[in-house]
Amino acid sequence: SAQTTFANLRKDFPILQRIVRDNKTLVYLDNASTTQKPNQVIDAITDYYRNHNANIHRAVYALAEEATELYESTRDKIANFIHISNREEIIFVRGTTEAINLVAYAWGRNHIQKDDIIVTTEYEHHSNIVPWQLLTQEKGAKLVYIGMDDNGELILDDLDKYLATGKVKLVTFSLMSNVLGTITDAEKIISKCKEHGVLTLVDGAQAVPHMPVNIEKLGCDFFAFSGHKMLGPTGIGVLWVRKSVLETMNPFHGGGDMIREVHKYETTWNDLPYKFEAGTPNIADVIGLGTAIDYLTKLGMENIREHEIELTKYAIEKLSQVKGLTIYGTKDISKRGGVISFNFSDVHPHDVAQIIDEEGIAVRSGHHCAQVLMERLNVAATSRASFYIYNTKEEVDSLITALTKVARIFKL
Ligand code: PMP
């Protein structure tokens, strides 16, 4: 059954055997920041360096062919994984941050003009706010926010209001909030935008690792995600752009591999997607990401979502019983993922994190790169527990037990 599959996979993750602090077994609950890596991914990366290392696309010798084949096969795996039919639309980048900056630069620079409007939301990660501030400030354009209700859901009336101005050029939002776990009603937003001929960018950093995502069905124009949040290595991510839009974009970086011909004063561009992949790419980590996708595909994204729903339901139930503890966002499990932000009475989240760290429990505390959202929630910071495929109900119990220690210390 799916249950046993999930129980057995912990052995694939060497780090989960780690002893930390005072002889405590690691309980890793910071998966919204980054996930741990299975042996399969670690081995794929070292196998590349041990046996296939060469630069890709250029040379004709055997190793270069092998490296190119390994690198390019990941592009096909991604196409299958996020359901798109055209591999030319997939651009390898460093992560979600670079993906969004690429769009702001290579699309935004020649599509955004004075008085245009870009719409984002109150629960975005800084990487889906700051690039748009830079662009709108440079162009004399305007950045506006879809508000969030007290349940942690977006107020779509705001979007209607903005769209009615006829000035909106782009609507950008995360498919899942990295603080509240809210799953955005993306299909509704995108269909509204389409009615007005407005492009949409989806930040999939928190969604792609945790639930099935079908870009063809979503119908957005830009989609970004990071490999390290889905068992893959750091330093590799994906930007997908609809071909008709990609064809209107200028290059991001200039250099090798992105050109067809370079003359003293002019250059012609390589085919898609290579026009947007200048220089020697992160070959090893692309290969590692391909292996991570194999691992997730074998488990099944539906099963992963089910596993996390069970854990999250259990955790919310247990946390709700802790006196003085506030959980942010919706408790409706169908509308959220396995990211739980909370505050414990008036104890600072850093103190909470530090005390439970003594028990070996790793949770994040702070603003989670979402200060606009912190302002909206009227808090400086939260504690955040976030789950992945290898987490168990026993680990949730450990978290609850550790929180009773916080209550004892602070006499709550
Ligand atoms: N968007 C969201 C929703 C995220 O959770 C994160 C990572 N915390 C990012 C963007 C940025 O991703 P990266 O740091 O991998 O570029």
UniProtKB/TrEMBL annotation:
Protein EC: 2.8.1.7
A single GO molecular function term of this UniProt record: pyridoxal phosphate binding
Keywords per UniProt: Pyridoxal phosphate, Transferase
InterPro entries according to UniProt: Aminotrans_V_dom, Aminotrans_V_PyrdxlP_BS, Cys_dSase_SufS, Cysteine_dSase, PyrdxlP-dep_Trfase, PyrdxlP-dep_Trfase_major, PyrdxlP-dep_Trfase_small
NCBIfam families xrefs: sufS
Family membership: Belongs to the class-V pyridoxal-phosphate-dependent aminotransferase family. Csd subfamily.
Name of the molecule in the record: Cysteine desulfurase
Species: Nitrosarchaeum koreense MY1
